[in-house]
Specification:
With 285 residues, this protein is of the alpha+beta class. It has two domains: 3-122, no CATH class; 142-284, Rossmann fold (3-Layer(aba) Sandwich), CATH 3.40.50. It has seven helices and twelve strands. Helix 6 links the parallel strand 11 (228-233) and strand 12.
């Protein structure tokens, strides 16, 4: 069982870590745990705890900027720690609204074990192990979540290839004379839809992905574009803010969507970040 330094034997291997808090409005004292800075087996790293859905719920359309700020600040703390002899001991000052918590040392058999301990000690997100039994009425609808994800991907792609701007959000009819359907990305080389496998709305996410696969399949039949794919944002397999049941449900959903894409001779690419999705768009487009 994982324990803190207050109760472990002196002969145990201890791994250093710091909880990293974010103060969205400076001076208010309201802090949110956004990640953990750690040193495990001599390697310094960081794990972002706050989920995209939480930022979306708090900041709406401004969540993209908040997410980038948090990720940049956490990456900076890793760089600072790697340059110091004492590693995490040097990462004690606030930066970009991120405030390091106390330096702790914990005995853990693996990195996920260490991160799980941090979540239980500092994050209310640990209660997500039973969230699947709660009312999901307040969960953002898949279309809203998809739109935010595709917008962030578009911004990242356009930063590198401004000429791709007009390819995002293009529409085309799926039947002669029918209503036009908007695609995430459409160029002469590729048709792309974006989706999100929401850990709290698995069934709705699968239905949404299935509908997008149908649109891709139909559009490919009406055009000469053979490169049609669905890029789906999913949680990481080691996401400690999700319970075992949720991680298993997300993994099962990925497999089901992939099987349906294969049956339609389409491609499904699961990604864990907008950056990874943007790289895939740049690769195929």
């Amino acid at each position: 069982m994982t324990t803190s330094t207050d109760s472990i034997a002196s002969s145990a291997v201890l791994h250093a870590w710091r909880p990293m808090f974010w103060e969205p409005v400076s001076g208010t004292g309201e802090r949110i745990l956004v990640g953990v800075l750690y040193e495990f087996d001599g390697v310094v790293g960081v794990s972002r705890f706050i989920r995209d859905e939480s930022l979306d719920g708090m900041f709406g359309s401004q969540a993209v900027g908040a997410r980038r700020l948090i990720e940049q600040a956490l990456a900076t703390y890793v760089a600072i720690s790697e340059q110091q002899i004492e590693n995490l001991a040097a990462a004690s000052n606030a930066y970009m609204g991120i405030i390091p918590g106390p330096l702790r040392r914990t005995s853990a058999k693996s990195l996920p074990d260490l991160l799980r301990t941090a979540a239980l000690l500092y994050s209310s997100m640990a209660s997500l192990t039973k969230i699947e039994d709660l009312d999901q009425a307040d969960t953002p609808l898949p279309e809203e979540v998809n739109r935010r994800f595709s917008t962030e991907v578009r911004d990242l792609v356009v930063m590198q290839r401004p000429e791709f701007t007009d390819f995002f959000g293009r529409s085309a009819p799926l039947v002669p004379g029918g209503h036009r359907v908007k695609f995430g990305f459409a160029s002469h080389r590729a048709l792309i839809h974006f989706s999100v496998v929401h850990p709290l709305r698995i069934s709705a996410s699968i239905r949404d992905a299935r509908a997008r696969l149908f649109e891709l399949q139909r559009a490919r039949e009406l055009t000469t574009i053979a490169n049609a794919l669905l890029i789906g944002a999913t949680s990481r397999n080691d996401d400690v803010t999700l319970g075992d049941k949720q991680r298993a449900a997300v993994a099962s959903a990925r497999l089901e969507i992939e099987a349906e894409a294969d049956a339609a001779r389409l491609r499904f690419y699961p990604v864990t970040s907008a950056r990874e999705a943007a790289d895939k768009v740049l690769e195929v487009a």
